[in-house]
Amino acid sequence: MTAIASRQAPLHQARRAVLGAVLSDIESRRPLVLLKAPPGSGKTHVLVRAAALAHHRGLRVAVATQTNSQADDLCRRLGKEFPSTGAHRFTSSSHDPGDLGSAVTVISAGRDLPAEACVVVATTAKWASTKDVPEFDTLLVDEAWQMPWSEFMLLAPVAPRFVLVGDPGQIEPTVTIPVPRWETSERAPHRAAPAVILGDASIPRVVRELPVSTRLPHDTVGLVRQFYDFPFDAWSGPGERRIELSTTRTRRTGVDAAIERLGEGSLSLLTLPTPAEGVPSDDRELAGACAEVVRRLLARRAVAVMGDERATLTPGDIGMVATHRAMNARLVEALGDLAGPVRVDTPERWQGLERKVMVAVHPLSGVMSPTGFDLATGRLCVMASRHQVGLVVVSRDHVGDTLDECVSVADQAPCAEDANGRGHALHTAAWRCLAGA
Predict the structure, then answer these.
(1) Side-chain half-sphere of 240: how many Cα atoms within 13 Å?
(2) Quick check: 280 and 337 in contact, CB under 8 A?
């Protein structure tokens, strides 16, 4: 057994033990199970196997996802990995799921739902809006921390037992109406359903935790773990994932120094001086620096090393993220022809996705007086956890001083969590980690 395999063996056993426990929970028909999962931990792997086993045991299984694309992808995995399950994709007639494979049946009418043992996948909205659904034995919810309590309540008629799987560090559910009237409610309708359940001791539940992230490099786990209330480790060890660069014949710049840091670890911080007149509202210079990171990686024929695997980076292996659409527009503009293959998007749209290398605009780079939106931990957590090999954070250099001088406003409702204070603390810890990388 190699040194890597020897180190990974207990992690593999711990992950299998959690999977076995969840499957046992389903077989014993526990009424409510929550599975907490860190980024890139294989929660979909667990959900797919749980659905397939429950079907094998003769149960009727419903699966709820938050988007159509998630439902389609889940059906493809079920059809590929467990073709004998005969999964059903329940969707509206106006949605085209594309090619789901021959093992998946598409259904658009509730009356066509099978009455025998089956696995049926639909969005939360589809399950909630369909009347007279024949009761299932178990409902599995994917990306459960993106589902508000109000939507979870609408799923009650679908099944008497639930398994909620998700990442508690991700962005809170999006709510488009004012919510102050519910801030002191024990079961606030706008909060993530698992958060409500965990905060209400009167709700019986079993909580499981996946113990390892297979996506994130070793030192990134040290950064990201601060956003979670349970421990987990990295599948990769120190130095197993890195970026190797060809030598350059041109003059080395700050960008070259930043990407060269990815040969020693997975995190790198590139800062630009903050102008004396303050942070630009339309930071084209920062966007240009981000685009230059991508160009230098490609020009220096960067190779992503993941254990025994080596692959030369292509534009499609690189992603870019910023919290505001205006900044993303500047990034697209600065990338030019590379804007097609290099995905540029907001943290909300990056949830569930990954790339070998990510380039992120720090959420506070363009902010001198952070608001609750700026200090929200979910966006920062998502931005810091999309990469498999390396992350370059690009920012104006005032962020450390801004955090030191910032006095977060405790404007939360009585007895509610001080989200601004927690956000300030985690942003400060993350910045210090990046600055010391």
Answers:
(1) 22
(2) no
pLDDT over 90 (residue 287): yes
- Structural contact between residues 169 and 228, judged by C-beta atoms closer than 8 angstroms: yes
In angstroms, rounded to a whole number, what is the distance separating the alpha carbons of residues 250 and 90? 56
Q: Indicate the residue type of 370.
A: P
The rounded percent of the chain whose pLDDT value lies above 70 is 97
In this prediction, residue 328 has a pLDDT band, given cuts at 50, 70 and 90, of very high
d(CA 405, CA 399): 10
First-to-last alpha carbon distance for the chain, in angstroms, is: 32
Q: Is the pTM of the predicted complex or chain greater than 0.85?
A: yes
Tell me the Ramachandran region of residue 264: left when phi exceeds 0, alpha when psi lies from -120 to 50, beta otherwise: alpha
CB 399 within 8 A of CB 369: no
Mean pLDDT of 164-168: 96
Q: What is the DSSP letter of 224?
A: H
Q: Find out whether 184 and 416 touch, Cβ atoms under 8 Å.
A: yes
Residue 182 pLDDT > 80, yes or no? no
CA distances 35 to 153, 223, 276, 436, Å, are 19, 22, 48, 33
Whose structure tokens read 């004998």?
84
Helix (H) or strand (E) holding 400: helix 399-405
Half-sphere exposure of 244 (CA within 13 A, CB side): 12
